[in-house]
Amino acid sequence: MVVDQLSENDTDRLFQAFSDATRRDIVRRVSSAPFSVSGLAALYAMSFAAVQKHVAVLERASLVTKEKRGREQVVRANHEGLQRARQLLDEYEAIWRERSSRIADILAEETEQLGDALP
User: Fold this and answer.
1) What is the pLDDT of residues 57-78, one digit of tens each?
2) In 35, 59, 89, 114, which residue has its Cα 20 to 30 A from 11's Cα atom?
3) Domains parsed from the chain with CATH numbers
4) 90-94: long-range contacts (C-beta < 8 A, 24 or more apart)?
5) Residues forming a β-bridge with 68
6) In this protein, which residues make up the domain named HTH arsR-type (predicted)?
């Protein structure tokens, strides 16, 4: 299970990275094609330094990689990191679906017991 494989800090970094709309958009863009940090900065109404900070958060969460190419830093999606994030979310979804199913079973059982108890 990915939930058991990721440390609490790794999980926190993933959720922190995805908590911001700009970072989610950067991941979406670099999943299609690599972008330089300056190319990404041109897409947003914020400073180059702010975009660099967003990329650093994504890099710490292993969602993107950054490679120096000449004077530019090229950002690419880290597909292994994205796969781990997807697996983590799938596992949380499975946990909640199981809990919902158990709640539905308990409610059905209680309703049946109430029905049996009525004259």
Assistant:
1) 999 999 999 999 999 999 999 9
2) 35
3) 2-117 (1.10.10.10)
4) 91/1, 91/2, 91/3, 92/3
5) 73
6) 3-97
11, 62 contact by CB (below 8 A): no
Q: How far apart are CA 101 and CA 107, in angstroms?
A: 10
User: Binning pLDDT at 50, 70 and 90, where does residue 87 land?
Assistant: very high
The pair of structure tokens assigned to 49 is 């330094």
Q: Using CA atoms, how far apart are residues 12 and 76, in angstroms rounded to an integer?
A: 21
Residue 62 · residue 82 · CB < 8 Å: no
Task: Give the tokens for residue 39.
Answer: 């190319």
- Lookup: tokens for 95: 């946990």
Contact (CB, 8 A) for 100 and 92: no
CB 46 within 8 A of CB 60: no
